[in-house]
């Protein structure tokens, strides 16, 4: 019974991902068909449902499945889950029509409150047998980063009422939120869940070695926030701190891979699971390389000047590293089957759209022309991501 609850909840998360993909397709076709919706409002809906509907719901479901004491707290978890869905559906029904306004802010606030409730619930009810595990330490750190990231949305209201949306502090608050979401909460949660999979097979990284990785990585998570401030061309000290953070985060992840790579070979992975894991790891290191590059003042300015480079980076992080990492985990733990055919639709859509988005940013940088039909091709290829997700849902609809 417990497993079926988590399977249903992962299906809900995938449904949000498909909805976010559908909104993304509408945004891609907007310049072609001039739909009647407000483009900016739809971007808000797309991003909120992708981050909070897909990633948050999938991660919290996996965390509950792996770390909670069995059979003692299902009712509390279910209540938290469904109140969270009320907030997500509320955002889905309000952001496309009003952007940031009374009702969308209400549902966004409700979501933040429910994330705090989940944090408290997990802190009180995690299974004692995992108390000293490396995986639980990562999950606790991830949840703290989730809470810390929420300071950004709270600050937005104050900034809007005092300095206005044109203030640099408005953008910094958004970047603060995004940074500690994907570099802190999401990355640490994925690592914690991966370590749990290893520990379940009695493969444990020695405590001393793990603590070196843990503190180096967390120093990197904190310091790489300064990468998100370089667009204001701050003092040289912040460039140095951002560079140290990028190096620390890279060193931490390399250290983890070095400690875990031999044990990974023992994990009972299917060919597709091995492919998903290797792809996610490869994208992690691409992300680290890009962070190191943008710590340099010249490339920091380039990333700021050409928005498509930033969009490509964010999509690579969320659609690539995080989403493919989640595909691996939900399939490995048996909560959702990732079929090869559906994944191929998703991956090729992801890969080609990334190439096109980065091409446009690069072309603007070096002053190349954009080829004819670029917008139409990007829109059509985006359909592949949606098709892959819909096929995944269809293949899992009767699974219990």
What does this 3D model show about the protein?
This is Cytochrome C and Quinol oxidase polypeptide I. With 400 residues, this protein is an all-alpha fold. It has three domains: 1-131, no CATH class; 133-230 and 238-266, no CATH class; 268-399. Helices cover 82% and strands 0% of the residues. It is built from 14 helices and no strands. Helix 1 (2-33) runs antiparallel to helix 2 (39-67), helix 1 runs antiparallel to helix 14 (374-396) and helix 9 runs antiparallel to helix 10. It is globular. The chain starts with a helix and ends with a helix. The mean pLDDT is 91.
Summarize the structure.
This protein folds into 3 domains: 131 residues, no CATH class; 127 residues, no CATH class; 132 residues.
Query: What global shape is seen?
Result: globular
Sheet with the most strands, sense and barrel status: none
Q: Can you give the mean pLDDT?
A: 91
Please bin the fraction of helical residues.
Answer: over 70%
Radius of gyration, taken over Cα atoms and rounded to an integer in Å: 21 Å
State the helix count: 14
- Ranges where pLDDT stays below 50 over 5 or more residues in a row are none
Q: What is the total number of structural domains?
A: 3
Structural class label = mainly alpha
Order of helices and strands: HHHHHHHHHHHHHH
**How far do the termini sit from each other?**
9 Å
Strand content: under 5%
Q: List how many beta strands DSSP finds.
A: 0
Keywords: Membrane, Transmembrane, Transmembrane helix
Protein name: Cytochrome C and Quinol oxidase polypeptide I
Organism: Flagellimonas taeanensis
Transmembrane segments: 12-33, 45-68, 80-97, 103-122, 143-168, 174-198, 210-232, 238-259, 280-300, 312-338, 345-368, 374-395
